[in-house]
Each structure stands twice: as C-alpha cells, then as structure tokens.
Amino acid sequence: MRRPVALFVALRYLRASKGSGFVSFVNAASVLGVMLGVAALIVVMSVMNGFENELRERLLGMTAHATVSGADALADWPAAVERLAAQPGVVAAAPYVEFEALLSGPGGMTAALLTGVQPDLERRVSAVGDSMLIGRLDDLQAGSRAVVLGRGLARRLGVAVGDPVSMLVPRAGAGATVSAARLSGFTVSGLFELGVQEHDSVRALVHLDDAGELVQPGGEISGIRVETADIFAAPQLVRNAAANASPGGDLQVRDWTQENASYFRAIRIEKTMMALLLSLIIGVAAFNIVAMLVMVVAEKRGGIAILRTLGCSRREVVAVFLLQGTVIGWFGALLGIALGVVMALNIDTLAPLLENLFGFQFMPADLYYLTELPADLQATDVLTAALGVLLVTALATVYPALRAARVHPAEVLRYE
C-alpha cells in the first residue's frame, strides 16, 4: 500500500461511521484538549515574559545596567566617567554616592537608602527623572538641601513636597568603626514612583555634593552607574569598557543580572512550573488519542484483516494508524497555536472582558503596581510549545499502531 493510500485509509477512519459515534466524540475531545493545552501554554508563557520585562524595567529604573566601583581608580571620578561614557556600546555613565540613613518626619522615623546623584547625568542612566510624580529631578541643586523621596517612603514619613525631613547619618571613623552621627535637615522637593516596593519605600535622592558633605567629605563616590545600548549584552560590554578605561584592572563591575539574580531566578522557576502544569492538559489529550486509536483498532479489526489479505504489510498498517493519530494531534496543535497567538496578542482586550464577565480583577490596583496583564509573545516559546506537542502526539500513536499491526487476518476473518 503506497503512502497516499495509507493516508486515504487513515482519513477515512477519522470519519464517523455507523455505530462509531463515541469514537468520533473522543476524536473531537482529543483535538479540543490539544488545542486548549497549546493555547493556554502559549498565553501563560507570554504573560510570564511580560512580567519579567516589566520587573526588569522597574528594577533597572534606579540601578542602571551595571555599576563600576574601585576606590583608587575613581579618585578622579569626572575623568573616569568620561572614559567609561566614551567606550563602545556605552550610552551614558553617572557617579553616585549611596549610604544608609535614618529619616524622621511627622509620621515617624524609618531607615532609608540615601543616594547622592548628579541630576543632569542621572537622568541618562535611570528612569527616576521620568517617574517623578511631583517636582523635578533638576530641583536637586548643590547646597540646596533638597531631597526627592519615593512615594512609599514619603507616606511612611508622613511628608509632602515642601515639608522638612531630618536625616541622621553615621560618620565613619578609623577602620570599620562609627565615630559619630550627623543630624541634618532637608526639604522635600519632589516625589517619584518607579513601581517597585524595593525602591519606592526606601529610596531618597539628594545632590551628589550634599551627600558628600554628609558622609564623604573627601569627595569620594561609591561608584559609577553605566547604561548600555543592549541590556542583554551589558555584562560583557561594561566589563570590556571598565578594562579599557582602567588598564590596571582595578575597577570592579556588578551588572544587573547579579544585582537582581533572585528576582529573575524566581520568574524563570515560575515560568517553568506553569509550563509543566499546563503540559498536563496536553498529556491528557495525548492519552485520549491513545484510547481513541485503541478503540478504532478494536472496531476496525475486520478492515485491518482485509487490508492484510490484499497485500498490505505490517509496516503499512502501522502507517495508517500513525497518520490517523498524527492528523488528530497536529490539527489540534495548529488550532491551539493560532488561538494562543491571537489571545496573547490581544490580552489587553481579553483580560477586561473576562474581569467583567466573572466579576474579579486579575491585578487589583490596591495590591499591585501593575493594573493590566502584560504579555510578550516570543517566537521561541511558540516554536518550543509546537514542537513539544507535535512530538508528544506523534509518540502517542506508536502503541495503537503497533497493536493494529499484530492483528492476524486468519483469526479475524474466521468469525466474520
């Protein structure tokens, strides 16, 4: 039996015949199961990609792509900033001073992470300037004693723009000891919101010169933030830039993958677990294909025997049922891919419809900074899901096809 004939017989067995309504129902259920499994897998992976992108953008809104540090090499930090900014692949560089402090306001006292910045350079390496709710980053002028607070931190302190804030900053003594603490008064000049609790509830910004007077009288800085043209190439780009800017190799580099490793590791684990759980739907559909083909083999034993007596080999009988199961699985997979891609591309429209239909919110505004489901459809995810489903459904046809090939024509036709 040639391949087109095997395909014809396989397609013929897919059509409902008298007394085989249940088999046809199982066929439809198998296609539906594969379709829903593939669609759900694509949509969930796209949403997880969207969450990862949003988290990356919000975390890097304050920390840039990498930081370069080294006390000796950054003694002349203006020259170091210029050298780093001139390196290939580097978009901008900005100095910063960072230390812990106690902030006090009408609402109480709380610990904060105080960062001294140069406003004109800082806006090139972070998103703080674009995330200002009130005021401007340029309001931080040298000697102005102005401070910009995260929205959550301002709420904890009970202050608004124009209110005074007291800062208690430890002063380093010899070695690792603390020799004294300095209490200074600042005025809130603005509020920002990056959408990450880690930043909005603990971060406060002052001018670099004012920060130097508080904790670094010698003009030393904590490091230089570096922004690159390609975030994913940033780790290697910044290391190359640091090596070129300081041939002595006395600059240390920490990139965004090191600073936020735990967050992105958690996202990857969640994405993997969701993919495995949703793959169970596809697994159930594959078992439906196995059950359906086993029933077809039992129902078509007479037809298989006739094919064998007409000269069909065992291999050709196997081909009939392999093709039958593969058509079902691949048809469901193609429908699932189409449905999943359409849903992922229109998640911003579908999510509100589901919220209105079932009366709940995916992302309540009082609990999450994100109020919409983000989605990032990636071709690699679609391809991986498609190949995985095609492989699983093809493997599901092997056992029933081999069982069909073991049918003995003489034993079957003896009772026909």
User: Which stretches are low in confidence, meaning pLDDT under 50 for 5 or more residues running?
Assistant: 174-178
Radius of gyration, whole Å: 32 Å
What is the total tally of β strands? 10
- In terms of DSSP E residues, the strand content is 15-25%
Return the string of H and E elements. Answer: HHEHEEHEEHEEHEHEHEHHHHHHHH
Strand order of the largest sheet: 2-3-8-5-7-6
Helix content: 55-70%
Mean pLDDT: 77
Q: Judging from the principal axes of the Cα atoms, what is the shape?
A: elongated
Distance between the termini: 23 Å
Total of DSSP H or I helical runs spanning 4+ residues: 16
Count of discrete structural domains: 2
- Report the major sheet: 6 strands, mixed, barrel
* Category from helices, strands and their pairing: alpha+beta
Explained architecture:
By secondary structure, the protein is an alpha+beta fold. The protein has 2 domains: 3-56 and 263-413, no CATH class; 71-250, no CATH class. The protein contains 16 helices and 10 strands. It has helices at residues 3-14, 21-63, 77-85, 119-125, 151-157, 197-200, 208-215, 234-245, 256-259, 261-299, 301-309, 314-345, 347-358, 379-396, 398-405, 409-413; strands at 66-69, 90-105, 108-117, 132-134, 146-150, 164-172, 178-192, 203-207, 223-228, 252-255. Strands 2-3-8-5-7-6 form a 6-stranded mixed beta barrel, surrounded by 5 helices. A hairpin with a 2-residue loop joins strand 2 (90-105) and strand 3 (108-117). Helix 1 (3-14) crosses helix 12, helix 2 packs antiparallel against helix 14 (379-396) and helix 12 packs antiparallel against helix 14 (379-396). The longest helix has 43 residues, at 21-63. It is elongated and about 100 Å long. Mean pLDDT is 77; it is low at 174-178.
